[in-house]
Amino acid sequence: MTRNSLSVTDNRTGKTYELPIEHGAVRAVDLRQMKAGPDDFGLLSYDPAFMNTASCRSTITYIDGDRGILEYRGYPIEQLAEQSSYLEVAYLLVHGVLPTATQLAEWRWEITHHTWIHENLKKFLDTFHHDAHPMAMLVSAVAALSTFYPEAKNGADASMRHLQVVRLIAKMPTLAAFAYRHGLGMPYAYPDNDLSYAGNFLNMLYKATEVKYQPNPAVERALDVLFMLHADHEQNCSTNAVRAVGSSQADPYCSLAAGVAALYGPLHGGANEAVIRMLQGIGSVTHVPEFIRHVKSGEGRLMGFGHRVYKNYDPRAKIIKRLAEEVFAVTKPNPLLPVALELERIALQDEYFIQRKLYPNVDFYSGLIYRAIGFPKNMFTALFAIGRLPGWIAQWKEMIEDPETKIARPRQVYTGVAARDYVPIESR
Ligand code: ACO
Q1: How far apart are CA 134 and CA 43, in angstroms?
Q2: Ligand 1: distance of its center to the CA of 162 in Å?
Q3: How is residue 17 annotated by DSSP?
Q4: Which of 90, 123, 313, 361 has the fewest Cβ atoms surrounding its Cβ within 10 A?
């Protein structure tokens, strides 16, 4: 008879233990009962970088990395990208169900009417150096929101939580657009409530002397789809940061600022910026084979390739590649596109990349679209942050509402010296 459990024999003591298996996992804390002697703390599992450790149970996002599947609350990303909108996806992630028409209209109205930021926060953004990176500004500005809404500390109150959720989704594009215009030395453009979420963001970025900014519908839709594609990706580096900080009951602004900080890194959200730098460095299609040789000899990485979870084509990269063609039809053709296509073509048939299951990820083509829309490289990760926001919020909310939540506090395997006496400085 089969049992849903794992039998483990500890060869130090000869004892056998039976650990229950639930949802394909054993509880690491069940290892604690395995002790080599009475003073032993108990067995730990060692897993740097969480290569095989589930840190939570979640009902938000499902990924099958081998088959290239991504679903939000059970809905395939392809269907959402085709038929939904970013704000509807945000509702889905945060509330767990698709909204009715009335619920969506209400959600849209709430978010549209919380886009303004306090004038003092605007002054705070003014104080940054002219060439401050928008991501560093965003980390600080999201944390600074906490100082304007001290009531956000009351995480136990569901209506208070809802207000912070709405504020965060509404204000993030305003903060990102103001960071962009600060870098250009342009006056900030205030939100326009007549426009869509993506349309208003474009307005705050690009409005100049015209009385009313009219976004290009193809660009507006492309941005909305890109936001949807980035909206959640289960327990990645930034989401883990949000959950870890939030588990100490820090308010949602400070918890999400940690997510923005984690996203900034070039191995995570910063990869799209690195892809463009890489493509510019390669320069032309003729230099691609030489660049691939350079990567294979371990002198660099093919940015926008490889993923901790996807060992197949990232489903988001497929959608983005199609989207790129639609955007390039209404913008100028991008001279880096042929370089990217040639890199992908060669890498996908090269043994080095095949063996390691390295495929294009979400960042490989997104930067080219952002570039075509007119974003400078240093804004790319800020766009990713806007997209990822509902995911971080949904994960933060799920963590707060989970009765199993405790403060995140990993163990360590101590490999330092054993206790020794302090040596006075004159005797060293
Ligand atoms: N180019 C060349 N070789 C690579 C790449 C790459 N992009 N990615 C992984 N490899 C190689 C490694 O050198 C290693 O080879 P080895 O076994 O001979 O040592 C092997 O593939 C496994 O790589 P790891 O670094 O162990 O894989 P890990 O799962 O830790 O890393 C990561 C995943 C960080 C995404 C990695 O693939 C990478 O650095 N990619 C480039 C950066 C990037 O595009 N990041 C965006 C990820 S998507 C996102 O965050 C939104």
Answers
A1: 44
A2: 37
A3: E
A4: 123
The predicted-structure confidence for 82-126, as pLDDT tens digits, reads as follows 999 999 999 999 999 999 999 999 999 999 999 999 999 999 999
Going through 73-167 in order, the beta strands assigned E by DSSP cover 75-76
Please give the pLDDT value at position 270.
85
CA of 365 to the centre of ligand 1 (A): 17
> What are the residues facing 187 on neighbouring strands?
none
Region of 306 please: left (phi>0), alpha (psi -120 to 50) or beta. left
> Annotated catalytic sites, by residue?
268, 307, 363
Please enumerate in sequence order all residues whose Cβ is within 8 A of that of 303, keeping only pairs 6 or more positions apart, or say none: 266, 271, 274, 275, 277, 278, 363
Q: Which of 239, 235, 117, 232 is nearest to 172 (CA)?
A: 117
Query: If we measure between CA atoms, which residue out of 290, 231, 268 comes closest to residue 361?
Result: 268
Spatial contact of 372 and 327, defined as CB atoms under 8 Å apart: yes
Length of the chain: 428
Q: Sheet containing 69-72: which strands, arranged edge to edge? A: 61-64, 69-72, 75-76
pLDDT tens-digit series, residues 158-207: 999 999 999 999 999 999 999 999 999 999 999 999 999 999 999 999 99
The conformation of residue 69, written as its DSSP 8-state character, comes to E
The Cβ of residue 339 has, within 10 Å, a number of other Cβ atoms equal to: 23
Contact 97, 121 (CB under 8 A): no
Comparing CA positions, the residue from 154, 155, 127 lying closest to residue 141 is 127
3-state secondary structure of 360: strand
Helices 252-263, 380-401: inter-axial angle, 10-degree rounding: 140
Cα distance between residue 81 and residue 100, in whole Å: 18
One-letter amino acid of 10? D
Choosing from 66, 235, 308 the residue with most ligand 1 atoms within 8 A of its CB, the one to mutate for a pocket test is 308
